Queue: 2 jobs
Job 1
Amino acid sequence: MSVKLNTRQVGDVSVVDVSGRITLGEGSSALRDALRDLMAQNNKKILLNLSEVSYIDSSGIGELVSGFTTVANSGGTLKLLGLTKRVKDLLQITKLYTVFDVHEEEAHAIRAFA
Amino acid sequence: MLGVSSRLRWLSPCWGCQGPIKRVEPTSKTLLDQEYPSTLESVDEAETVILQAAADAGFDEDEQHRIGMSVRECMVNAVVHGNRYNRNKVVHVGVTMAGDQFLVRILDQGEGFEVQEVPDPLQENNLLRHSGRGLFLMGAFMDDVKVRKAVPEGTEVTLVKNVPPRQ
């Protein structure tokens, strides 16, 4: 299953629901395009919901990192929501878990943007 | 969880190894010996085939995931960085059961690289780099990773996973 993305607005936060696999090729480029579109529309608060992401490779990790820095460099904030155990493990062994602001509950994550 | 120094021990290059390398033990059994074109589709195909071989070898789901991900990272390196998507070059993939070890050997036809020059992705100034984590993840997920310059060309990576004892 390749990646699927759906963006919805919760207040002033853009929530991107991601499902499937974020891997080199279609998966990572789709995520990159979605974040680029949000930035182009001046959405500065972005919450990536990864609860339905079954698999992510180093390219996918790279896109998360690039998204994080691109949004931050534009004065915005990118947070992560709902990591599966495998994605969480991956971010921990790459020492990126503490770089991202990670939340388990959407309402909590939305409040954290305030 | 492995410590940082332990995770970096997989950087075990065999540059300049003298003499022929013994690849297959007498009790070994070849599970896969296949050439793949230098495409991203090959990455998916090799991952799928080797995941099945790992399942047949008795690895649980978590270990299958680690093996599959290591294969994916290694295949991506071979296709993208080694062969640079060159349709005239192939990636040779071999899977062998050698005693209690599950061995995956991936050989590209690229120009090769110096493994010592690969930046440590865990260093603070490298943490936010877009790329450069593939080799590190292989080392984190496999029991051993050997990288050597192949003759006459290319890079050969051998991923090693110890087979769990049968219940």
Job 2
Amino acid sequence: MWGYLIRRILAVIPVMTVVAVVVFLILHLNPDDPAAIIAGDQATAADIENIRRQLGLDRPVYIQFFEWVARLVRGDLGSSIFLERPVLHLILERVEPTLALAISTTIFSVVLALPLGVLAAWKAGSWIDQAIMAVAVLAFSFPVFLIGYGLVQGLALEWDLLPVQGFVSITEDPSRFLAHLVLPTIALGLVYTALLARMTRSTMLEILNEDYIRTARAKGLANPRVLLIHALKNAAVPIVTTIGVGIALLIGGVVVTESVFAIPGVGRLTIDAVLHRDYPVIQGVILVVSGFYVLINLLIDLTYTVFDPRIRY
Amino acid sequence: MSNANVSAGAPPPAGTPLLSVRGLETRFFDDGMALKAVDGLSFDVARGETLCIVGESGCGKSVSALSVMRLLPPPPASRVDGTILLEGQDIRALSEREMRRVRGNSISMIFQEPMTSLNPVVTVGYQIAEAVRQHEGKSWAEGFERAVEMLRLVRIPEPERRVKEYPHQLSGGMRQRVMIAMALACRPRVLLADEPTTALDVTIQAQILELMRELQEETGTAIVLITHDLGVVAEMAHRVVVMYAGRKVEEASVGDLFERPCHPYTVGLMGSIPELGSSLVEGKGPRRLAEIPGIVPSLRAMPAGCRFAPRCPLATDRCRTEMPPLEEHRPRHWSACWHWERAQEAIHVHA
């Protein structure tokens, strides 16, 4: 187990190296000249040349790469061209809303999707199953921004139940923090809930045909025990995998959701950086998100051993 | 098959049957078509008795057991008719909730595949304990104590350690022992065993059968043993029901059946197992194994008349048009054949 953990952590190094190379190349394979962007519209050719030398952009690419990596290792992600502040600080300032949204969406989806998926599988073919699956298809088919604007229009503008947009830090006011999360969570989470519910249903359906389910019923166990202990525990590995994949998909959805609800998170930071061609910020965000994703994958692989005793590392 | 009389032990004790099945009919519905998998099956098992139901795959023997346990897909996918009396109580009249109290408690079932019939992600101790908890209202601790006790009963070494293990940590034979332990944990009156040794090595098979016989002597459980293997029948049965294409074609005590089979199908089954030593006695080289020609008819296309007629060497025009009734041709020996007196000739036709 510990050996496996160490091997897995070491395996992060080549993955992140590939990510670093790709991220580095973004700057060098694009048609824009970073020095020209930083120098601004009024700059003369001499100004641009000056800036290029200052930033070391005139040196060979491989030397730039190693210097860049050396800074990364020390936690220096560079500075924003526009905001002229360290990228790491910018990301850390924006990380709370994004993380809060990702976590609340995951919880919302899992809590809603698992019971619905199990119920649909148990009542397979009945009207309950058909209703759940019809709603799932519907939820899956609507784009996030459409659901978001619909919710804002109904719940926030018409009935004034919830705040329209924005974000309040949990340290500032926990109840307003939650109120501001409700609409973005639903908007972002519905698609994900639909995906997870369908996945849970199909996995459970397969498992309910297994011999050991028949054994469990032959023992005279009641349905909840058969479903939740004998079937769901066997479905856990594929379900957890889907949750993991979902967290990755969520990162894309977060960008849109943060725009719709004007949440000052990493998604907004990314959009702004892309619009301004603020390369150090774009690079920093990609690196941090990739690292986060690698971490999630590691955690998911480790949870497999909890759910399935046959998996031993 | 002269060893049949010897190994089957003492004749079954008399008494009212613990499980009595009358006119069992099981239908499956597929595309609006009713397929009758079991057609009018009746049998009794008494305390301490072993009844073997024997037949080829697809003859309805497993479906019969699942019908008794009420473990088939619920209507409209299937329909069960007939009377199933467990200790005099008609279990077909029970609600699903009441039936759950019966399952695993008064009547248990062991399945063919020990590899897939145990839950892979739950410890074997838990799987035994939960049944005890369910039926006897015991605590988890008491349930696990019973689990250890049951594992010891089925001769699993180091039960205290094994109880915490998962099925994949056990061998096939061990897993079937666990299945037996689980089935017997609440001391059922009747045990339905569906091909319990088919998936196991021959040596392990013998051990499991031996174990079942010993446990039966200790507990007096009535056993319905479903098998396709006449060797197992000879080893275990007191009485035998032979099924063909959903119907009972012969029933007799194990001795009678092997000595004077009254149905050509039974004779055919016997012809397809090797007989040890026969060739030496006759001195004519090894006897050729006979096989029953043809295949079991499909549920969708049952022949008129006797269902075995298309494969039967004795079949006449009457067999092909009129279904022979099940009749008691000798005391406690029934068969459904127009030519039951000539049934034993069937083997000579093949051989």
